[in-house]
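Exercise 7. Given the encoded structure of a 208-residue chain, write a plausible sequence.
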């Protein structure tokens, strides 16, 4: 498959259905992009570390195995996100030019999270998990949304839309710290592991 890089082409890495009217979408040529495999991300990261011209080769840096494994896993196949974190980490290296796990974890927090498509898909999945009474799933998707920078007030509105009697439910529910523990556990998992793909049947139906 070849790509046309002529000035008349418009390229977008997200689902354009959220930003462009259907009439224009029907006249666009759309290519679906998929996440890279873990071994592919590792190869690109290693090349970036050793490339003197376009990478960090002149810095003579190394990345420890657990740091590389973490970066490969948590970037979810988005090599741009991995390279951004690698670049940030390169300025924080203190241990003989080696990028360790702690350094790469801190650097990855500076990444830009999510796209328009991810935003609508996460919202849709969160709501459908609540409708289906899947508590663990709803908490997990809530953590993904919070970790991606979604405003809590937006999430609160979705909860109210889902259940107009949310106030009554919260008031009459037994009080415990289980919800606090659940969301903290979910946030820890989201921050330190690869994101699970959103099931197709739960995605926003208007996406491509």
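Solution.
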């Amino acid at each position: 498959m070849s790509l046309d890089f002529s000035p008349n082409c418009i390229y977008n890495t997200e689902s354009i259905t959220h930003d462009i009217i259907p009439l224009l979408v029907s006249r666009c040529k759309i290519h679906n992009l998929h996440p890279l495999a873990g071994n592919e991300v590792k190869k690109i990261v290693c090349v970036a570390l050793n490339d003197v011209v376009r990478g960090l080769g002149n810095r003579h840096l190394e990345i420890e195995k657990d740091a590389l494994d973490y970066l490969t896993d948590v970037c979810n196949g988005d090599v741009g996100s991995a390279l951004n974190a690698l670049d940030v980490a390169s300025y924080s290296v203190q241990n003989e030019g080696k990028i360790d796990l702690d350094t790469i974890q801190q650097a990855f927090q500076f990444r830009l999270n999510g796209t328009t498509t991810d935003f609508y898909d996460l919202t849709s999945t969160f709501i459908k998990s609540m409708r289906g009474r899947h508590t663990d799933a709803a908490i997990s998707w809530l953590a993904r949304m919070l970790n991606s920078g979604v405003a809590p007030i937006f999430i609160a509105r979705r909860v109210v839309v889902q259940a107009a009697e949310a106030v009554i439910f919260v008031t009459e529910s037994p009080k415990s710290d289980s919800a606090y523990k659940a969301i903290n556990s979910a946030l820890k998992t989201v921050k330190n592991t690869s994101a699970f793909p959103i099931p197709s049947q739960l995605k926003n139906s208007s996406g491509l």
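Remark. Confidence is low (pLDDT under 50) at residues 1-12. Students should compare their own answers with the one above.
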